[in-house]
Protein backbone atom coordinates (compact mmCIF):
# COMPACT_ATOMS: atom_id res chain seq x y z
CA UNK A 1 0.00 0.00 0.00
CA UNK A 2 2.89 2.35 0.70
CA UNK A 3 4.40 2.06 -2.78
CA UNK A 4 1.26 3.14 -4.72
CA UNK A 5 0.67 5.98 -2.25
CA UNK A 6 4.27 7.17 -2.58
CA UNK A 7 4.11 6.96 -6.37
CA UNK A 8 0.87 8.99 -6.40
CA UNK A 9 2.31 11.61 -4.06
CA UNK A 10 5.42 11.87 -6.23
CA UNK A 11 3.35 12.35 -9.39
CA UNK A 12 1.26 15.08 -7.74
CA UNK A 13 4.38 16.83 -6.43
CA UNK A 14 6.05 16.75 -9.85
CA UNK A 15 2.86 18.05 -11.49
CA UNK A 16 2.69 20.92 -9.00
CA UNK A 17 6.34 21.83 -9.54
CA UNK A 18 5.99 21.65 -13.34
CA UNK A 19 3.58 24.56 -13.14
CA UNK A 20 0.47 25.46 -15.03
CA UNK A 21 1.90 24.56 -18.44
CA UNK A 22 1.62 20.86 -17.64
CA UNK A 23 -2.14 21.04 -17.27
CA UNK A 24 -2.51 23.09 -20.45
CA UNK A 25 -2.99 26.39 -18.69
CA UNK A 26 -0.88 29.33 -19.68
CA UNK A 27 -1.07 32.95 -18.71
CA UNK A 28 0.70 35.16 -21.21
CA UNK A 29 1.08 38.79 -20.35
CA UNK A 30 -0.24 40.64 -23.38
CA UNK A 31 1.09 44.06 -22.42
CA UNK A 32 -0.12 47.19 -20.73
CA UNK A 33 -3.81 48.10 -21.16
CA UNK A 34 -4.33 51.45 -22.91
CA UNK A 35 -7.42 53.32 -24.09
CA UNK A 36 -7.54 53.48 -27.90
CA UNK A 37 -9.85 55.09 -30.43
CA UNK A 38 -11.03 53.21 -33.51
CA UNK A 39 -10.03 55.22 -36.59
CA UNK A 40 -10.91 52.71 -39.32
CA UNK A 41 -13.58 50.15 -38.39
CA UNK A 42 -13.94 46.81 -40.17
CA UNK A 43 -17.22 45.07 -40.98
CA UNK A 44 -17.72 41.61 -39.50
CA UNK A 45 -18.71 40.04 -42.82
CA UNK A 46 -15.16 39.57 -44.07
CA UNK A 47 -12.53 37.05 -43.02
CA UNK A 48 -9.49 38.34 -41.10
CA UNK A 49 -11.13 41.64 -40.20
CA UNK A 50 -8.62 44.17 -38.89
CA UNK A 51 -9.45 47.55 -37.48
CA UNK A 52 -7.10 50.49 -37.17
CA UNK A 53 -6.84 52.17 -33.77
CA UNK A 54 -4.96 55.17 -32.41
CA UNK A 55 -3.58 55.22 -28.87
CA UNK A 56 -1.22 57.32 -26.79
CA UNK A 57 1.49 55.82 -24.64
CA UNK A 58 4.54 57.49 -23.11
CA UNK A 59 3.37 60.81 -24.56
CA UNK A 60 3.50 59.57 -28.18
CA UNK A 61 0.58 58.80 -30.48
CA UNK A 62 0.76 55.38 -32.18
CA UNK A 63 -1.31 53.61 -34.79
CA UNK A 64 -2.23 49.99 -34.24
CA UNK A 65 -4.02 47.13 -35.96
CA UNK A 66 -6.63 45.29 -33.94
CA UNK A 67 -7.86 41.83 -34.91
CA UNK A 68 -11.55 42.47 -34.55
CA UNK A 69 -14.66 43.91 -36.10
CA UNK A 70 -17.93 45.62 -35.31
CA UNK A 71 -16.65 48.72 -33.57
CA UNK A 72 -17.79 52.15 -34.70
CA UNK A 73 -15.52 54.95 -35.86
CA UNK A 74 -14.43 56.98 -32.85
CA UNK A 75 -15.40 54.25 -30.39
CA UNK A 76 -13.10 53.85 -27.39
CA UNK A 77 -11.72 50.36 -26.69
CA UNK A 78 -9.15 49.15 -24.20
CA UNK A 79 -6.26 47.41 -25.94
CA UNK A 80 -3.16 45.61 -24.70
CA UNK A 81 -0.03 47.26 -26.07
CA UNK A 82 3.27 45.33 -26.26
CA UNK A 83 6.12 46.52 -24.05
CA UNK A 84 8.47 47.32 -26.96
CA UNK A 85 6.92 49.70 -29.48
CA UNK A 86 8.48 50.52 -32.85
CA UNK A 87 9.19 54.16 -33.67
CA UNK A 88 7.18 54.04 -36.89
CA UNK A 89 4.55 51.80 -38.41
CA UNK A 90 1.49 50.07 -37.08
CA UNK A 91 1.63 48.04 -33.90
CA UNK A 92 -0.33 44.80 -33.54
CA UNK A 93 -2.58 45.14 -30.47
CA UNK A 94 -5.24 42.94 -28.90
CA UNK A 95 -8.32 43.67 -26.87
CA UNK A 96 -7.14 44.01 -23.26
CA UNK A 97 -9.65 41.73 -21.56
CA UNK A 98 -8.98 38.67 -23.73
CA UNK A 99 -6.17 36.18 -23.47
CA UNK A 100 -5.21 32.82 -24.87
CA UNK A 101 -5.56 29.80 -22.62
CA UNK A 102 -7.77 29.06 -19.70
CA UNK A 103 -8.71 30.75 -16.49
CA UNK A 104 -6.45 30.34 -13.50
CA UNK A 105 -9.26 28.61 -11.60
CA UNK A 106 -8.81 25.52 -13.78
CA UNK A 107 -5.37 24.67 -12.41
CA UNK A 108 -6.58 23.59 -8.95
CA UNK A 109 -9.39 21.58 -10.57
CA UNK A 110 -6.94 19.84 -12.90
CA UNK A 111 -4.63 19.09 -9.99
CA UNK A 112 -7.53 17.72 -7.92
CA UNK A 113 -8.49 15.43 -10.80
CA UNK A 114 -4.87 14.30 -11.06
CA UNK A 115 -4.85 13.49 -7.32
CA UNK A 116 -8.09 11.53 -7.71
CA UNK A 117 -6.67 9.61 -10.68
CA UNK A 118 -3.50 8.75 -8.75
CA UNK A 119 -5.55 7.59 -5.76
CA UNK A 120 -7.83 5.50 -7.96
CA UNK A 121 -4.91 3.90 -9.79
CA UNK A 122 -3.12 3.15 -6.55
CA UNK A 123 -6.22 1.58 -4.99
CA UNK A 124 -6.80 -0.52 -8.11
CA UNK A 125 -3.21 -1.79 -8.01
CA UNK A 126 -3.50 -2.51 -4.28
CA UNK A 127 -6.75 -4.42 -4.66
CA UNK A 128 -5.50 -6.33 -7.70
CA UNK A 129 -2.35 -7.43 -5.90
CA UNK A 130 -4.07 -8.24 -2.62
CA UNK A 131 -6.57 -10.72 -4.08
CA UNK A 132 -5.24 -14.19 -3.36
CA UNK A 133 -5.13 -16.48 -6.33
CA UNK A 134 -6.96 -19.66 -5.42
CA UNK A 135 -7.44 -22.32 -8.01
CA UNK A 136 -10.99 -23.54 -8.29
CA UNK A 137 -11.54 -27.02 -7.05
CA UNK A 138 -12.32 -29.47 -9.81
CA UNK A 139 -15.72 -31.02 -9.69
CA UNK A 140 -15.65 -34.76 -9.33
CA UNK A 141 -18.67 -36.61 -10.55
Task: Walk me through the structure.
The chain has a 5-stranded mixed beta barrel with strand order 1-2-3-5-4. Helix 1 packs antiparallel against helix 2 (about 105-130). Helix content is about 30%, strand content about 25%. The longest helix has 25 residues, at about 105-130. The protein is of the alpha+beta class and about 140 residues long.
User: Roughly how much helix do the residues carry, as a percent range?
Assistant: 25-40%
Q: Can you give the mean pLDDT?
A: 78
Number of helices: 2
Low-pLDDT runs? none
* Share of residues in strands: 25-35%
Cα end-to-end separation: 42 Å
Order of helices and strands: HEEEEEH
Sequence of strands across the biggest β-sheet: 1-2-3-5-4
Number of DSSP E strands: 5
**Structural Rg:** 28 Å
Output the structural class.
alpha+beta
**Looking at the structure, what is the overall shape?**
elongated
Q: Biggest sheet, in brief?
A: 5 strands, mixed, barrel
Which key features would you list for this structure?
single chain, 141 residues, five-stranded mixed barrel, 26% strand, elongated
